[in-house]
Each structure stands twice: as C-alpha cells, then as structure tokens.
Amino acid sequence: MENSEDEAESDKLPLDLEPLRSLAPKFPTILGYDVETQSTDPLLVYATPSIPCSSSEQPQEAPASFSLPLPKSPVPIKATPISAAFPTPQHEDESSDQDYKPFCKNKKPAMPKRAKRPQQAEKSNDANIKRRSIRRNLDNEFNLCSSSSDNPKESVEGILMMFDSLRHRVLQLDEKEDASRRADLKAGTLMMQNNLRINNHKMIGHVPGVEVGDIFFFRIEMCIVGLHAPAMGGIDYISSKNKDETLAVCIISSGGYENDDDDTDILVYTGQGGNSRHKEKHDQKLERGNLALMNSKSKKNQIRVVRSAQDPFCNSGKIYIYDGLYRIEDTWTDTAKNGFNVFKYKLRRDPGQPDGISLWKMTEKWKANPATREKAILLDLSSKVEHLPVCLVNDVDDEKGPSHFNYVAGVKYLRPLRKTKPLQCCKCPSVCLPGDPNCSCAQQNGGDLPYSATGLLAKHTPMVYECSSNCQCSHNCRNRITQKGY
User: Which InterPro entries match (predicted)?
Assistant: First the structure.
C-alpha cells in the first residue's frame, strides 16, 4: 500500500526538463548507501564520450576498479569528481568544458586532436638542423671537409689548419662584441660538435699522424687530433668496469717538476685531485687518473707524454710539445706544500725516439747565447739589421760559407706591379676598426679587416687589401702588417 501511494504521488509531480550540462551522467544513489560529497561536482563515474572515434582511435575501457563488488555493509562512500581523478590535458587552442554546449546549432564538437610532438624532440630536431647549417657554412667559408687522406700526417695537418682558420675567423667576429670566451675554445667546441676531428678512439702508443716534437699552441688542438682527449684534465686514460684494467694513455706535464730541467729523459709527475680552487683541499685519492697511472706501472704499458714550455711570444702563455712515449718506473706518496698527501710517479722515456723537449730546451739556450751552438759559422748573418740575430750554421761539412755577400732585409721586385684599377682609400681618422661600415679598406676585404688585433691573418683569402699611403689612418693601423716588416 505504501509503495502504491508513493507511485501515485510521484505521478502527480511535474518533471523539470533541463539540458544536459555535463558529459558524465549522474546515477541515482544506491539503496542502502550514503554518498558524502564535499563539492557539487558529479560522482566518480566512467562514461564513454558521445563523440565518434576514428578508426585508428579506440574507446578506452573502464578502469578495473569499477568491476569490484560493492561492500555488503552499508558504509558511507566518498566520491571524487572524474575531472580530479583523471585530469585531461588542455591545449591553448582547445575550449574548456564550460564553454562547450552540445545542443548549440552554431558550434560542433571538436574532434580529438593528435598529441603534439614532445618539446624535447623538437629541440633535438632544431639542434640537428642548426648543426647541419653550421657545417654547411664552415664548408662554404673555409672549404672544410672531414679529412679522408690516406696519409695520417696530412690528415692531422688538415685538421689543425682547419682549426687555425676557424679560430682566426671567430676572433675576428668576436671583436665586434667584446666576447669574454676565448676564440680557441669556441673554435674547438664547434669542431667537436660537428665531428670535425680524427683519431676518436683512445689508444696506447703513438697516435697516427702525430710525430715526436710536434708543437701545439692550444690544448684543444690535442683533443681534435686524438693525442689527449680531456680538454682540461692532465691524465687521459682508458676506463673499464674492472678497475685493474683502467690504464693511462697520455699525460700533460705543466712544467716545474723535479728533474724537469736537468734530465729530459726522466719526469716526476704529480697525481690529480685534492687541490681544487672551488672545493676543500684534501688528500689525493687512488681513483680515476691516479688509479690508471698505478695500473700502468704494473702493466708497464707505454704512455704518451706532452710537456709544456713558455710561449716565446707571450709571457703568460704556454705551448705544448709531444715528447714521445714513457713508462712508469716507480710510484710513491709525498706531502705537498699544502700539507696533504699526493701521489708521485716517476716516468722514463723510451730510448731511440727523436728529440722532443730536449731540442726545444737546446734551442732556448742557443737563442740566449748563439755561441753555444756547435758548428756556428756566423753568429749574426744580418749584421744587426734584423731584430733577432740570424745565425749561420753548417752541420753538413767544413765549408765556412760565402766570403762576401749583400744581406737584403726586404723584397725587391724586378718589375713593378701594375694596378688594374684604382684602389679605394679609407678616411679613418686614427686607425681602421673592425665592423666600421664607413671604412673603404674593410669593404674591399669583404666587410671585415683581414688581420686580427695581434696581426694574424684572420681568413684565408686570395687577395688582401692593406691601407695605402693615400689612406688617412696612421702607421699604427692593424691593416698595415706587411708595411711594418712582419
């Protein structure tokens, strides 16, 4: 009777028809359960969207949690909105659910859009495009190509020439911006990123194309030819999962070690670590390069040694000379000046190799006193006309050289050069500056000055236009290199 009365009363109630405002339908409360909600959002339900899917997109299946049986005892259930449980990513060009009106005739529901390419993949693709563009620019401007010569020496010379040209060009371009980073590091990094290098794999012994006595002006040069891989570290080694198989292949001596001046065949090398500028000082640890040198002592493998010397043209600079192959004879620990323990390694040079650092040190003595050189005929062939004495040496026979001759300090042309067209003259008030659009001499050289601030030719070009006597710039202008006798 009670049920019939309720049904009769419900028939009398009017029905309020409202348009559907949510994609997720609301289900009636299950008998015997109370639903606690703290918001007006619909209950946690799963509903398949009414928009038809394409053939390649299949509707998602309902989560497994909805197939579990309901508990037998009537306990309250906390419901969470589906938007909070499974948030749907929104794109900037997509409208939100609040603006979506399914019964509006003027708007149609938007089809599901494909996921955009991940940002990381886009960056990687852009980097590859930029790298290929840089490589094409290098090839066009410097006529660069990966060294494919069968002669290893020619390959090394080609790579070093490529680096030198690029370094000069970077230095020339950076003068317009007052860049703080060194041009050699920029050029080396650019070549490494574009795989413009040789001898990529580490090896024990000599590196093909690099001969004993070869001189390097920058450490990055040794990286691109495969002589010494680390750009900053002094120990190059082959790492292995088995610590006993980690071996050293090359070290760089910065100078100032024991026996460094007296005996050029023996080198006492100090290990790495423990004396960092940015970290607290501590004892050196038997790891990485130190461990590799210790293993090389027991394995008795050959180690390439690069010794440094002062740059004769720059008091604060260094040059690096490949001194050949050494082997470790002895190792021990010592106390450094800062009070912490360091590793010491005594290396001896393998006999029968060409002169390396010994020839350089001998040359330094000859420059300081030419009379110390054997078989010197004349100490100064120029009779003090040149800034540096020109020493005449005969290492072949006992001939004493010409008895009389005229030393000429300049170049004399038998026939004068003829100008095919009149040269432009700059009107720079003091000196020609890089990046000056009003400098006619710079415009004749392609828009930039051909020389760097130190007088180096910044770019290989078939013709260099220097400032002439008709130019208004001073004699100290950098665009007058050959006129100064350099």
Answer: H3K9_HMTase_SUVAR3-9, Pre-SET_dom, PUA-like_sf, SET_dom_sf, SRA-YDG_sf, SRA_YDG
